[in-house]
Amino acid sequence: MISKSPQAVAGAPSPHSEGEQIGRWTEISGLVGLLLVAVYYLTISWRTWNHPLIDFGRELYIPWRLSEGAVLYRDVDDVYGPLSQYFNAGLFRLFGPGLMVLVTANLVIFAAILALGYWLFRRAWGATGALAACLVFVSVFAFSQYLVLSNFNYATPYAHEATHGLLVCLTLVVALGRWLERPTGSKSFFAGLLVGLALVLKPEFILAGGAVTATAFVRRWRKSGSISIGSFVALALGAALPTAVFALYFARHFPAGEAVLAAGRAWSSVIIHPDILGKKYQLMFLGLDDPWNNLVAHGQKTLLVIGALGALGGMTAFALKRPGVAARWSVLALATGLALTIGVKGEWGDIGRCLLGLNLLYLGLVWSGRLSRLTQGQPVDEAVIDRRILLGVLAAALMSRMFLSGRIMQFGFVQAALAAMVVVAVVFAESAEWMTPRRGRRRAVACVAAALLVPGIVWCSAYSRRYLKAQDFAVGEGRDRFYTFPPNLDATGYLVNKVVEVLRELPRGSTLFALPEGEMINYLARRPSPLPQFQFYSFTTEGGRELAVVAALEAHPPDVVVIISRDLKEFGITQYGERDGGGRQIMQWLGQHYQVAHHIGDDPLNSDQRGAYVLQRKAAGAAKN
Question: DSSP state, 374?
Answer without folding.
Answer: G
